Each structure stands twice: as structure tokens, then as C-alpha cells.
Structure of Ribosomal RNA small subunit methyltransferase A:
Amino acid sequence: MPKTVNHIPRKRFGQNFLVDQGIIHAIVEAVRPQPGETVVEIGPGLGALTRPLLERLPHLHAVELDRDIIARLQKAWPAERLTIHAGDALKFDFGSLGNDVRVVGNLPYNISSPLLFHLMAFAPHIRDMHFMLQKEVVARMVAAPGGADYGRLSVMLQRRFHMAWLLDVPPGAFEPPPKVDSAVVRLIPKSASEIVPLDEALFARVVATAFSQRRKTLRNTLGALMRAEDLAALGIDPGLRAEALPLADYEAIARHLAARAPAA
């Protein structure tokens, strides 16, 4: 955002406006939007990505909460070019836009993880997503088992998406500069054939429980759900911590628990 633009970024909305033209070009090139595609931008802000997207698209959807920014966007583009969905992206029904939806955005860092979990529910409607996020969040998203970055977010997202870390973005690319580094990540929903059929609520409970106390072993964290002998029978060492288990082991635990549950 140029210094001359008369808009004060709001901390409660996590506003840091992207201004680096090289980064903006790289993101748009990664997305490569084509006429006829349904593209929605989360948090368009002052239009850093909106403008180049609309240079390639006849129409764009945007989800924006800030009323002042909504007014600016409405002045800049007519409704037939830019459809603005005024409201909180955490509550927005992305499925209402149809199927094969492409999602882009510089996500507010203060809601990035909840928003990613919200978007998981709409994976069947989505072709791909390209997001700017805090660098440490992207590290957690793509982390492999065994490291400190690997956690609940890693397992939950890796079950539903193929993910790729595309580029790093320094604080100076924003106005005002955030106190953290950023990165751009691509998420592509897995096909139904790539996803092990599971009780999704049970799987989410297993993962959340396992990572609820990272320093404790599975014997302790999952003790209320299953015995150590049952973990061992699945080929899982109950003396390991949650960060040591790959996605397939969490899926195996969820299948075991579902098979053991009494029929309703």
C-alpha cells in the first residue's frame, strides 16, 4: 500500500497490506487465473492482488469484513466485475460459489489456522488454494513427522490436501511491515480415492487428543481412548510422542476405534 493511501490498518483485522510488486506478480503467476474460472479472494484489502487478478479475469469474488475497505473496493470496481461478500471469512459458505472454486488471499495471521480448518469442510468444492501466511504456519502445514513443526495442523491438512511451499516473503513486502516472515503456499484437495474413508469427527478427536500434551507419550495422551497394548497391536510404539507418528498411523488408530465402538 502506498504511504499516501489514507487507510489506517486495523490490528483487530490483522491488516498488513502487500505492496511489493515483484511478490504480487509471483503470486499471480503461481495462480495463473483463466477467464471462466470461479476465483474468490479472501481479504482483498486495498486491492494489491485484486487488481492484477481482475486484469486476467472478467469477474472475481471477494470476502471482506472491513466496511471501509468494502466501500473503497465498490468505488474501484463495479459489481459485475467484483462481487463482494461482506462478512467474516470464518463464517462464509465457500460451497455457495459452486464447484471447482479457486481461493486466493493474504490471510490475516490472527485467524489463519481457524480459517484453514474452516476451508477443509469445503475441499470437495475447491480446485486449489494459494495463500500468504506467516512463515511458521506454512512450516507447520508441510512438516514431516519427527520435527517440532509437525503437529495437529500438519496431520489434519495433510489428510485432505497436497501442499507445496512456493516462496518466502520478507516483512518489507508489506505496509506496515509485520514482525514475522511470511510465505506463500499452494493447497490442492486430494481426490476421494486418495483419502482413507474414516469417521472424520473421530479422526479429528484422535489427532487433537494426541497433540494436546506434546511432551507426553501416546500411552498417556491416548490412554482414555485406547490401551497401550492396542497401539502396539497396530504396530505403533506407545512410548512415542504424537509428533513421531505419520498420517497413516493416526488413520489406523481412528479405524481401530471405530471398529471397536458398539453399533448404535
Observations:
- The CA atoms of residues 91 and 118 lie 8 Å apart.
- The mean pLDDT is 92.
- Residues 200-260 form a domain with the Helicase, Ruva Protein; domain 3 fold (CATH 1.10.8.100).
- The two ends are 57 Å apart (CA to CA).
